[in-house]
Design goal:
Length: 263
């Protein structure tokens, strides 16, 4: 069996510090075989930098998934081809830089991680359904986990039902709010609509509340950014156990509150 820890979107410096602070004890408690994080909000809420990429690998992270903000920091684009532990959404055009999947072998079991981007309420992009179907036709892996980075809960659930029995786990990211619907679909595919986030507790999905409120109250453009300080962080993740035959045995969500050193 393979035990995976998947952490929700890490938002800004507060999120990173909470993750680094708690990860050693979580590794001790769970004894995971694989650690995956969604990293599209790592650098001040948007994108990732080379320095942060290497910090995550040094901390013990195996794979970094992403989403619609993965290219927001331009200084990483030239390195994305060599950053094999970072994957961008599979349904971007083939000409877009970066790796669209991550594969590894643990205990003789082959594991492949994919990342797809939803179409509803997000910039135009190829269908995550059709793109994933095509990819699965040409992959032979014991375990396949997919991070669907999408806005609409219905799109995530539809994606899960479409690929039930074909992949071992489908986890949703992007909305930063952990959902209470973790399940094993058809005794095969682990699923949760959204894993949640790691970031400032006194925030609106990891961002300073004031600009978000002004946007809702005035409909005027606002620049969103994570707060620089907060007394506490939320840390959301799931533990997934998958059998050698690719069937998920369990998926358990966790939501922790962390006292911040940056508070």
């Amino acid at each position: 069996m393979i035990k995976i820890l998947f952490f929700g979107d890490i938002v800004g410096e507060i999120g990173r510090e909470a993750f680094y602070k708690k990860l050693p004890s979580l590794k001790k408690d769970h004894q995971p075989d694989l650690i995956i994080v969604n990293g599209e909000n790592l650098a001040n809420g948007k994108g990732i930098t080379p320095h942060i990429y290497h910090q995550l690998l040094d901390s013990g992270v195996d794979c970094i998934t992403s989403g619609n903000h993965v290219f927001d920091n331009k200084d990483i684009i030239e390195q994305m081809e060599e950053y094999t532990h970072l994957i961008r959404p599979l349904n971007y055009p083939n000409s877009v830089p970066g790796n669209s999947s991550y594969s590894t072998t643990i205990q003789g079991i082959t594991i492949t991680i994919l990342n797809v981007l939803g179409q509803v309420f997000l910039p135009p992009i190829d269908s995550p359904f059709h793109t994933t179907e095509k990819f699965l036709e040409n992959i032979n892996s014991d375990i396949i986990l997919i991070d669907i980075h999408a806005e609409a809960t219905s799109e995530k659930k539809a994606f899960a039902y479409h690929f039930q029995n074909k992949v071992s786990a489908i986890v949703g990211t992007h909305t930063h709010v952990q959902t209470n619907d973790a399940e094993i679909i058809n005794e095969h595919t682990a699923y949760i609509t959204d894993v949640g986030m790691i970031g400032a507790k006194n925030s609106i999905i990891g961002m300073k509340p004031e600009p978000v409120l002004r946007r809702f109250l005035t409909s005027m453009p606002e620049r969103f950014a994570p707060p620089k300080k907060d007394d506490f962080s939320i840390l959301n993740y799931v533990e997934i156990i998958i059998e050698k035959n690719g069937k998920a045995q369990s998926i358990i969500p966790y939501s922790l509150t962390i006292k911040n050193e940056l508070g």
